[in-house]
Write a structure and sequence with these properties.
Layout (H helix, E strand, L loop, with lengths): L1 H20 L9 H13 L22 H9 L5 H26 L7 H4 L7 H4 L2 H4 L1 H17 L3 H17 L3 H16 L13 H7 L1
Helix pairs in contact: 1-4, 2-3, 3-4, 4-8, 8-9, 8-10, 9-10, 9-11
Length: 211
């Protein structure tokens, strides 16, 4: 049964990731727009049509730029197109891991991951809003972490919750609100003692950055 589960999950991930790498450009509505922005961010100074219009600004406390930051990190080993494809691949794989983490923490059958994952190719993914769909795995990492922090709150769990919510802020400024709101609700509902409500301060760094 264990081999069957992991084989099935690998097959589903392959089916979800394959469209990202097929063709000249990933067939998502807004992928081209994101590719243009990332290309300008990575190569703006070397493109004659852009050098007078695009000025580099070293401001790091800005949301929505993680796909571009990834492209900057891998350039020139990977071009902007390949970097965005890699970003999408990482989102799919991390979403599967996050869903399994959520199912284990909330004591649900792990086979439910096969119900959830196919819906990745819909909604915001179909529109091609790359940085927004990066919120999906972060949300499903944050919720079980919030439950842990509310119930027994080890220092490691609290540190991970701070890291995940901060990463959500940098991923997308609007999608972050869903993460912080649902995570706070889950944490409050999971508190076993009102005296431990100070653990909500784990959300303060990310929220203050957003504000």
């Amino acid at each position: 049964a264990n081999i069957f589960f992991w084989t099935g999950l690998l097959a589903m991930l392959t089916a979800l990731i394959a469209p990202v790498w097929i063709g000249t450009i990933t067939p998502l509505t807004d992928f081209g727009g994101h590719l243009q922005m990332v290309d300008a961010l990575v190569r703006g100074e070397t493109l004659p049509a852009l050098d007078s219009r695009v000025l580099p600004r070293e401001e790091w406390l800005v949301p929505n730029l993680l796909p571009g930051r990834l492209a900057q990190f891998f350039y020139p080993w990977l071009g902007p197109n390949e970097s965005l494809r890699l970003f999408l691949t990482l989102v799919v794989v991390s979403l599967a891991a996050a869903l399994l983490f959520t199912l284990r923490e909330f004591e649900r059958p792990r086979t439910h991951v096969f119900v959830a994952l196919p819906f990745f190719w819909g909604g915001m993914t179909g529109l091609g809003l790359l940085n927004y769909i990066g919120i999906y795995p972060l949300l499903f990492f944050a919720l079980p972490l919030a439950r842990r922090v509310g119930q027994h709150g080890t220092k490691a769990d609290m540190a991970w919750l701070v890291a995940v919510t901060m990463l959500a802020f940098f991923m997308h400024g609007v999608g972050f609100l869903f993460v912080i709101g649902l995570t706070a609700l889950c944490l409050v509902l999971s508190l076993t003692d009102k005296r431990t409500s100070w653990r909500l301060l784990c959300l303060a760094p990310a929220l203050s950055s957003w504000l």
